[in-house]
Structure formats: C-alpha cells, structure tokens
Amino acid sequence: xxxxxxxxxxxxxxxxxxxxxxxxxxxxxxxxxxxxxTIAFQKILATTATNKMTLKxxxxxxxxxxxxxxxxxxQVDLRFNNxxxxxFERLQSDSAGSVLIVPVEGDExxxxxxxAVGTERYELSFPKGxxxxxxxxxxxxxxxxxxxxxxxxSNIRLLRRVIVSPAYVNRPxxxxxxxxxxxxxxxxxxxEELEQLRWPVNRMWELLxxxxxxxxxxxLALYALGHVMKVLPY
Length: 234
What we know:
Elements: H1 3-19, H2 26-54, E1 58-67, E2 72-79, E3 85-92, E4 98-105, E5 108-116, E6 121-125, E7 128-130, H3 137-148, E8 151-162, E9 173-183, E10 195-200, H4 216-229
Parallel strand pairs: 4-9
Antiparallel strand pairs: 1-2, 2-3, 4-5, 4-7, 5-6, 5-10, 8-9
Helix pairs in contact: 1-2
C-alpha cells in the first residue's frame, strides 16, 4: 500500500472510531460507509484469489518413464482448477535426501577436490553425500565427514534445508555447520582419495571468484555461514 493510501485508511478509521462517541453529518458517514464497503470488497477478492491458488491441481495419473541406478523419471498428468490439463516430468529418488557439511577447524574451512562428471573436471566443494534409509541428517553428516575428510564432529548445526529445483524434484538437502572436529576416519566409497584444501575463514568470499567453486548449493552454504557469522560479502 502506498503512503497516501495508508494515510487515507488511517483517517477514515479515525473518523469511524470517534463517530461512535459523537454523531457526524450524514454525508460524511455515507462516504465512510462507501469506503469501508470498497475495502471489504477488495478483501473478499483477495481472499478468493488466494483460495484459488491454494487449491492444488488434480493428479490424473503418474507413469514411470525411465529408471536408472540413480534416477527415476515420472510423467505426471495434471488438471488445474481452470480446467487446463498438462503433462509434467519429475525426478524421483529412493534416497531420503542428502547433506552438505561446512567443516570449520580453528580459523579454516575444510574443503575437498573431487572429480565431477557433469563438468568433466575437478571441482572444489564441501563434503557431501546421501542420507541412508532411516538415518538422521546430522548422523549422515558426521559419517560423511569421517569418510571424506577423516574427521568427526561433536557439534553439528543445521544452517539451511533446501530443495534445489522444486519444479522437478522433491529431494531435500540439509546444509550443516560442523565444528569441534577430531581425527576419526572411516572408509568411504570414493573411487580415488580425495584431496583436502584448507581455506581461511576470513577469506571465504574469495571462493566465489574461483571457477572450480561453481556448485550452487556450495555457494548457498557459504552465504548461510556468512549469515551465521554476520559477515557480509561486501
């Protein structure tokens, strides 16, 4: 609402309030009633529009299109409330989601360098991995730390829970902060030993300038850490 509109509403409310104690000329009361009637009608329209948007489309059918070791593609036929019928495709996963962990030891971030077949190059990232069936996110986070950087954490804190592309997937990613690290390795399933990189916390925003630190969730994790530390990138 504009400042002018806000003042008008406040003024009419004021007149309406004091009219309860002192009669006003009929014309003024008429304009007040018209104004309140208009506001009430606008509220009804807004409520109706909101209710229409909260009514989800009807799922007519779900068909399995393709399945691989990692991905399951489904075709979903929908009917929207206005009668429009469309087909969407989505990715399903048997996993409960995944975790991405920001390990901080002293005044340094602990990152890994790992080959990414999507970009066909080695990428810099925080430790990450899938959540096993029945496993809690913080337990999965500690396990992934042990497997990927050989350290456990006794202090794991949730920073964010996100879904990267809700139009296509419903697979949550828990972004967690891990501190109080101690050496406690576990064997992992990586095809080669992961390279570790220590990065000063006070230079963390410089990571955004690196071409090999391009993953969006990793960058979001960096901003989430900056929010907790109250350190802005500018």
